């Protein structure tokens, strides 16, 4: 992750935490934190629902992801979703990266990803996601 991306992530985490996202309680994190994506392909588009495991208690986090997709497909949009992360912020970073920051993230559904330019014959199994970094409420890398 570039220095500018890290600075932006830390600033967003500080804003999210300042907006009521955190008390002083310790949070238990099960490392590694993993992500899965259930994808539905429809013609030249696809929508993936992303979920994470390893975050037992809702707390402020920043997460970075790398997305795999068929050649020619592109990330077109990302939005937060689910019971906890829906109040957060999600963004596309580069050609295959995603960033999620939220005052409340816990295991379960966290965002939906929309793909465009999906090639003919693509299947749900052609799409994937992996956690590349996890930051705590202070912007400290914890995974």
How would you sum up this structure, described in words?
This protein is mainly β. It has one domain (3-22, 29-135): Immunoglobulin-like, CATH 2.60.40. The chain is 13% helix and 51% strand. The protein has one helix at residues 3-21, and strands at 29-42, 45-55, 59-68, 74-80, 89-93, 97-105, 108-116, 128-135. Strands 1-2-7-4 form a four-stranded antiparallel β-sheet, with no helix packed on it. Strand 1 and strand 2 (45-55) form a beta hairpin. Residues 6-25 have low confidence and may be disordered. This is Cohesin domain-containing protein.
Write a brief caption for the model.
This is Cohesin domain-containing protein. This protein is mainly beta and 143 residues long.
**Poorly predicted tracts of residues:** 6-25
Number of helices: 1
| CA-based shape | elongated
Query: Which CATH architecture would you pick?
Result: Sandwich
Instruction: State the separation between the terminal residues, measured CA to CA.
Output: 13 Å
What is CATH's topology name?
Immunoglobulin-like
Strand order, sheet with most strands = 1-2-7-4
Organism: Geomonas propionica
Protein name: Cohesin domain-containing protein
